[in-house]
Each structure stands twice: as C-alpha cells, then as structure tokens.
Amino acid sequence: MQEKLYFYYTNDLHSNFDNWPQVAGFLKGAKEKRLAENQACWLIDIGDHVDRVHPIAEGFMGKANVQLMNDVGYDLVTIGNNEGITMDHDDLHHLYDEADFQVVCANLHSLTDAEPAWLQTTVHIQSNNGVKVGVIGLTAPFNAFYELLNWHISAPIHTLEKHISHLKEAADIIILMSHLGLSEDQEIARRFDDIDVIIGGHTHHLLRTGENVNNTIITAAGKHCAYAGEVVLTWDHMRRKLVDKKAAVYDMTELAKDLNTEQTLHDLTKKAEALLGQSVIQLKKPIHVKWFQHTDIMQKLTDTLREWTEADVAMLNAGILLDQIPAGQVTYREIHRICPHPINPCVVRLDGNELTEVVRASVSKELTELKLKGFGFRGEVLGKMICAGMEVETCFREDGSEYVRAIQYHGEPLDPNRTYKVATADTFTFGRLLPEIAKSEVKHYFVPEFLRDLLAYTLRHKWEDY
C-alpha cells in the first residue's frame, strides 16, 4: 500500500498582506480537501511572516500575524529573523502565547531564566496510517542582534548534528523547516543524508518544482506569498520507504479572496491605526522631504543619530524618509508610514582613511540613486548621504557627477591614524554597499529602537515649527 502525505507552506510574507486573503483561501481549501479525502495534510510557515513594516504588525507587535495564522489553521511554524531581532525580548518571548500551532526552532535559546512556553526544538507528527514524520526548525544566526536582545542562535550544522540521530530513531521521514537561505540548505542537504525534505526561505528564492541535492528535495516559494508551496511525499508501507517526493508552487495573485480574511484585515487595520494614534507633534506647516537634497529634517535626524549613539560622526541616507510630514497632528502611525524600515542605529569604528573612502563612495551617483531592495530598507532609493559631526565639501565635474573635495573633523582633516566612531543605519553593515563599514571589526547595534524612534524623538525635542 502507498500513502501520500501533503504539506502546504508559506515563507517570507513580511507582513505584505496584499495576497493574504488569496493565500488563506487556498490553504484552507487545500487542507479541507485533503482531510475530506482522509489524506494526511499539514500547513507550515517558514518564518518572516511578521515584519514591522506594516502597521498591523507594528501596532499589535506581531500578535495579529499569529491571529491570522490561527484563522487559516497552520500546524507548524518556525521563526525568521524578522520575528527574532525586530522586537524586544519580552515581546518575542510572548509572541506565540496564543498560537494554535506548534512553533519549532531548535537553535533559538533564551539567555534569560526561562525559555518561552511555545518553543519546541523538534516535533513528531503522524499520518493516518502511522507514517512517522520528525520535524526540526532552524533560523539564521544573526547573533550580533540576538544577543543584545538576550537570545542566542546556535550554529545550524551543530544543532542538526545534535538532534538528527534522535529524530531518525523515532521517525520514518525527516523534514527541516529552514529559515537559513538557499546556500545553507544546499550545504545541509549535501552533509545530512537522513533529511528527506528541506522547506526553506530567508533568501526569497523560488523553486517551482524543488531542487534535488543528494537525498533531499529542497523547496521554497519566493517572498510576500505571491506563491504558496506544496510538497507531496509518497510512502510505500510494504517497502517501508519513501518512493516519491514532489514539490510545486501555486500562483496566489489571481485566486479568489477569502472574504472572512479580507474583513479581518480591514478590522485589524482600523485597530492598528488606533493603537498607533498617539500624537508626536502638532505642525503648523508640512516638513518637506527630498531624497537628493539636503533638508533640515534629515540634518536634525542625523544629528540625533550621532548624539543618541554617542558617536564622533554620523551618516544617514535621505531615502530613509519616504514622504513629507504633513501639517497638523502627526501620530506614530504617520511616523511609521514615512519611516517604515526595520532598521536599527549602528556604530562602527573606522580609521581616517576608511572614513574618507566611505564619504567618497557615499556621494556617488551609483549609491545615491541605488534602488535597494533588502537589508531592512523598504524605500525607493538610498538618496543623498547627510553627515553630522564632520564637514564635507563637495564639487561637481563637468559631467554633473559629484566628488568630495575636503573632509574636516573639528576643523582639521581626518587623521589616518585615528579611529572614529561612525553612526549609521545598520543597512550598511551588510553586503557591499559601503565595504569599509561592512568589514569593520567593531559593530555596535542599538536595539530594539528603530530609526523611526529617533525620528519621533527628533520631532518632539528638536523641531521648531514656525
């Protein structure tokens, strides 16, 4: 006898609810159909469902996302870095208190006295005919952030080595829920023969029919739930082995919406607006924002960044503010709309030569006009770099390109033998946007505050509204 086991999954929603009513309808319908056929079926999420870019996630600090997953009927969830490092310890510790599903993450550990009641390292599920499935979850080890929030993420490979043999003893099939990224998933598949399926995410890769590596099928469904995924495993009871593994993804964008979910999102949006309705400032006239020009608001925000972090100098890109700040009462909801990024302040240490290279690169057209996607940035373009604590003199070439003529700190040129504390957005500590910052051996992240918290502080305490 052969038996099919069905797994439907989502990953990396990032609180982008545009397709969520369609996703909810698809998942509920799939589960209802399979259960009516007496087939084994589970709904799974691979993390980064929560992203504080959306007012629902911000206002409810992620708990409304959990409610939405409860409504759909999820069975198993792991956490992504957006659940893990964008809220303070207590908020994550209680994020899933009301979850109707199991949260599985083997490498997340609290550095306080108690682990969350919802946290499980592994779980075992079973089909109607007794096929035993062992499930383990892993999340990406951003310990530079996690440990500031009193969490620790153990190394994924070490964690698997610790748990995989125990899983194998009690399970016929092993599934890894991985918020690690495609390259990590491929390496795990090469090293661990006993893992049958890796359902992945984090790097927003779309594997339409899966990818077979060694003995493992790897799958993922992109980002923002434009797609939802399906894994179908066929177990042969006579041979006591898996005889087939298939993966697919389904386009959600054109499907019918689940009307109850759409109404729930409408209601949650209204409630979130009320939760974020506290006044920050009353303005007589709007504050103008320009991405490629110097503005008073960006200068004051960059000044605040330098003072807040006690740095020598600060640098912040003007594209961080998405829109002008309108006249009238400005609430936290408006601040969130204008500065939605889950970006933290950060201080790095650079010598004078390194800082000079950063300033030179920051005025280039390639950087200021870069349409960045990722690294926490949720805007359109990076924009002009605004500086505080140092004077930067620039000139323009005949072709219109800008270049740095002189940089002074307290009236003197930058000293190549001196180390400067440079405050900036944590965005620049990742990738190769500004390599000197990314390669700095000393990085001090400020958590859980976001740049929008500094914006609210700036408006409250520094803005003079004439």
Q: How does the overall form come out from the CA principal axes?
A: globular
Strand order of the largest sheet: 6-4-3-2-1-14-15
CATH superfamily of the largest domain: Metallo-dependent phosphatases
Tell me what portion of residues adopts beta-strand conformation.
Answer: 25-35%
Unreliable residue runs: none
State mean pLDDT (0 to 100 scale): 96
What structural class results from the helix and strand content? alpha/beta
CATH architecture of the largest domain, by name, is 4-Layer Sandwich
Number of domains: 2
Description:
By secondary structure, the protein is an alpha/beta fold. The protein has 2 domains: 2-272, Purple Acid Phosphatase, chain A, domain 2, CATH 3.60.21.10; 278-461, 5'-nucleotidase,  domain 2. Helices cover 30% and strands 30% of the residues. It contains 15 helices and 25 strands. The protein has helices spanning 20-36, 55-60, 63-72, 81-84, 89-93, 143-146, 156-170, 182-191, 259-275, 296-309, 332-338, 352-362, 365-368, 435-438, 451-461, and strands spanning 2-10, 40-45, 76-77, 102-104, 108-110, 119-120, 122-126, 132-139, 151-153, 173-179, 197-200, 206-213, 216-221, 227-236, 241-251, 279-283, 313-317, 328-331, 345-351, 385-388, 391-396, 402-409, 412-413, 419-425, 443-445. The protein has a 7-stranded mixed sheet with strand order 6-4-3-2-1-14-15, covered by helices on one side. A 6-stranded mixed sheet has the order 7-8-10-11-13-12. The protein has a 5-stranded mixed sheet with strand order 20-17-24-19-25. Helix 1 (20-36) packs across helix 9 and helix 10 crosses helix 15. The longest helix has 17 residues, at 20-36. The radius of gyration is 24 Å and the shape is globular.
